[in-house]
Predict the structure.
Amino acid sequence: MKSILFDIKKSTKLSSDESYIVTLADHIIMRVVVDNNGKYELMTPTASENDNGHFPYPNIPLLKDAFYASLQKEDNSFDLTEEQDFKGRTYFKANIVCDYISDVYRLSESLFLFLDKMENK
């Protein structure tokens, strides 16, 4: 199995008490926001971080397909929606049930494997 090194870092970009970015090198692959009830909202990125030099993954259609495939593999009880940020940029959002941040690690690993597979077709 191929090993992919990624990181999950705290983010201050969104107005939430608990917010993270999942990164690969200098690309943001996913944003994670945890609400007060412990519900996790996963989103594809539209903009860079304000303070740490990470930029959104450049191929959003490919990222969306990998995002969807990894969600299907890991959790069949998600609802993927297409939304727009305040500047009109498209992103994809899924609400999932996670018990621990380790669930996000597992989903992120699956996302990266699908993304790598799709990029190298």
